[in-house]
Amino acid sequence: MFIDFDFQGHQLVVHLSPQNCGGEGANPVDGDTVPVRHFGLVLTPEDWRAMAARFEEAGRPFLIAPRVRFEGEPGEQGTFFVRDPAGNALEFKMFEDEGRLFAT
């Protein structure tokens, strides 16, 4: 089973396959263990804070709780990770300065 989404003019194809979502690898990133296979969405700082608050208020567990990563560096960003109902890892992130989105 799958569904196609119009993702800002791009096609995002999502397959329901929970048996393939667990046990993926992870990499250490700035003190966190980040799932290798994940989908990331960049939000405005205001929307990112509101989304984090919604997850917290709903009592949904975080894989990685909201925090600022790479503080003081060019790639400084707010980030948090959750799992969707099928077990996929989702990252929500924000940049106070959007011009730093692809900074290294």
What does it look like?
With about 100 residues, the chain is mainly β. The protein contains one helix and eight strands, in the order βββββαβββ. The protein has a four-stranded mixed beta sheet. Strands 1-2 form a two-stranded antiparallel ribbon. The protein has a two-stranded antiparallel ribbon with strand order 3-4. A hairpin with a 7-residue loop joins β6 and β7. The protein is globular and about 45 Å long. It starts with a strand and ends in a 10-residue tail after the last strand. The model has no long low-confidence stretch (mean pLDDT about 85).
Strand-helix topology:
Elements lengths: L1 E6 L2 E6 L10 E4 L2 E4 L2 E6 L1 H14 L5 E6 L7 E7 L5 E6 L10
Parallel strand pairs: 5-8
Antiparallel strand pairs: 1-2, 3-4, 6-7, 7-8
Give the structure's gist in a few sentences.
The chain contains one helix and eight strands. The chain is mostly beta strands.
- Number of helical elements: 1
C-alpha termini separation: 38 Å
- By secondary-structure content and strand pairing, the structural class works out as mainly beta
Rg of Cα set? 14 Å
Give the SSE order as H and E letters. EEEEEHEEE
What ranges have pLDDT less than 50 throughout 5 or more consecutive residues? none
Average pLDDT score: 84
Sketch the major β-sheet. Answer: 4 strands, mixed
Please tell me what the overall shape is. Answer: globular
Helix content: 10-25%
**Taking strands numbered 1, 2, ... along the chain, how are they ordered across the largest sheet?**
5-8-7-6
Got a strand count? 8
Quote the beta fraction: 35-45%
